[in-house]
Amino acid sequence: MGRREVISYIGGKLLAALGTLLLVTLFSFLLMRLSPIDPAEAYVKRNSAMVTQEQIDAAREKLGLDQPLHRQYLRWLGKAVRLDWGTSLATGRSVAVELKNTLPTTLRVVTISAVITMGGVLLFGCLGAMSASGWLAKLLRLCAILGVSVPAFYLATAFLDFFAMKIGAISVVSNVGAGRYVPPALCLCVSGICFYGQMLADSLRDQRTQDHCVYAQCRGLGESRILLFHALPHALIDLMPSFAQMLGMSLANAAIVERVFSLSGLGYLMIDSVLARDAPVIHAVVLVLAGALVLLDAAAEVAQKLLRQKW
C-alpha cells in the first residue's frame, strides 16, 4: 500500500466521520426542537417566579428560537466549528467551561475501564481458545452470557449496596483520590470483557486453522507459543475496530454509572442538562460523544489496514 493510497484512505475515513457527525448533530437538533417542552418556557421558569407570555416571547427571541429551524441549526453549526458552543441556560457558564470541568472525570473512568478490559479480554480469550470443550469452556460461556446480560447501572447499584452499605468497605459520598474512579470503571468493563473476550476466543480458534499457525505447528512449536506469537497478533488486529467502538460506547454508557457513583463527569452533566432542557449543553455533549466514537472507529480501521499490510 503506497503513500498516496494511505493518504487517500485516511482522507476518505475523515470525510465519512465528518458526514456522520453532521447527521448526528442534525438529528440531535431536530429531536430537541420536536420535544413538547418549550426551551424558552423552561428557561423563563428557571429564572423567574412569575411566568408570562411576554417573558417567554422575549426569551425565545433572546435565545434565537424565533428563527426558522434551518437558520438555528446553521447558526449553531457555524459557532460549533469555531468551538463556540454558547452559554449554559441552567448555570449561565460557558458550555466549554462545563465540558472542561466534567470531561476529565469521564476520561479517567473510561481509561481505567479500557485498561482493565484489555487485560480481561486477553485472559478470557486465551482461556476460551485453549479450552474449546469441557467444564472451563462451559463456565466461560456462562460468564459471557451473564456479563453481557447484566447492565452496567445494575452492577453499579449492586456494587454500592454490597461494598458500601453491607460491608462498609467504601464510602458512598466522600471518596477522594484516584481510587474513586476504579469502582465505576469496574462496572463499565464487565460487559466488554465478556463480549469481546468471547469474540477473541472465537477469532483465536479460527486463526489456529490458518496456514501460518499450521506451519508453526509443523515446525514443532508449542501450543502456547503458537497461540501467543502467531494467532494472537492476527486476532487482535481483527478485533481493533470492535474494541474502538466499545471505547466510544463506554463514554456514553458512563452517564448512568457516573450518576450512581456521584461522579461529576460528562454523563452526569448530560443527564442534568436533559432534565433542565439545557439545549446548548446537550448539543455540545452529543457532538463530543459522537466525535469520540467516529474518530476512534476511523482510527482503528486505518490502523487495522496498515497493520495487515505488515503482518
Describe the structure.
The longest helix has 38 residues. The chain has 12 helices and no strands. By secondary structure, the protein is an all-alpha fold. Helix 10 packs parallel to helix 11. The model has no long low-confidence stretch (mean pLDDT 82).
Topology (SSEs and partners):
Blueprint: H1 3-34, H2 39-47, H3 53-62, H4 69-81, H5 95-130, H6 135-149, H7 152-166, H8 182-207, H9 211-218, H10 223-260, H11 266-276, H12 279-310
Helix pairs in contact: 1-12, 2-3, 5-8, 5-10, 5-11, 5-12, 6-8, 7-8, 7-10, 8-10, 9-10, 10-11, 10-12, 11-12
**Total number of β-strand segments?**
0
- Overall mean confidence score, pLDDT: 82
Low-confidence stretches: none
Largest sheet: none
Number of helices: 12
Class from helix and strand fractions: mainly alpha
Summarize the structure.
The chain has 311 residues and is mainly α. It has 12 helices and no strands.
Main attributes of the structure:
about 300 residues; mainly alpha; about 80% helix; flat
